Amino acid sequence: MRLFLLALSLSLSFVATARADDCAGAISAYRRAHGLPAVRSDSRLGAVALKQAQAMAASGSVSHSVGGNFPARVAGLRKSRAAENIGAGFLSFSEMLKQWENSTGHRENLLMAGARRVGVASVSNPNSPYRKFWAMVITD
User: Fold this and answer.
1) Where does the UniProt annotation place the signal sequence (predicted)?
2) Going edge to edge, which strands form the sheet with 40-41?
C-alpha cells in the first residue's frame, strides 16, 4: 500500500507541474504574439494563485479581496510589479485564458511589460454555479 501511495503522489506532482507549464506556455504564446517575451511557471506564484482560487471556491464568489488584500498576499515575493487575474465558470484553462484576452484589464495583466514569471491555479466547487475558480499571478 505504501508503494502505491508513493507512486500516486509522484504521478500527481508530475501532472500538476505539467499543467503549470502548459498554462505558462499558453500565456507565453499570447505574449509572444504581441511582441513580448515569454514567462516561466513559478511555484511560489502558483501557491499564491492557489490560495486565492481556494478562497474564492470556498466562498462561492469571484473577488480579488476574498483571499485577502492582493498587495499583502504578494508582499513576501519581493517583486516590484505584480498583477492578478481571476475568473470562474470556465472548465478549461484555454477557455479562461480566452476570456482574459477579451477583457481590457485582464489583457493588460497578461501583457504586463517586464513580466518574467507566472503562477496559475484552479479549484473546483461542484456546489457553486461557477463550478471552477481560476487565479493567475504574474510578476517581473
Assistant:
1) 1-20
2) 40-41, 117-125, 131-139, 82-88
Residues in the chain: 140
> What does residue 38 show for φ and ψ, rounded to 5 degrees?
-70, 165
How far apart are the C-alpha atoms of 51 and 73, rounded to whole Å? 9
Report pTM: 0.86
Please say whether the beta carbons of 108 and 66 come within 8 A.
no
Q: Mapped to the 3 state alphabet, what secondary structure does 96-140 carry?
A: HHHHHHCCHHHHHHHCCCCCCEEEEEEEEECCCCCEEEEEEEEEC
- Taking only the tens place, the pLDDT of each residue in 81-111 is 999 999 999 999 999 999 999 999 999 999 9
> pLDDT class for 63, splitting at 50, 70, 90?
very high
With b for 16 or more beta-carbon neighbours within 10 A and e for fewer, the 119-133 pattern comes to bbbbbebeebebebb
Q: How many CA atoms lie within 13 A of 21 on its CB side?
A: 6
Q: Where are the domains of the chain?
A: 28-41+50-77+91-139
* C-alpha neighbours within 13 Å on the C-beta side of residue 95: 10
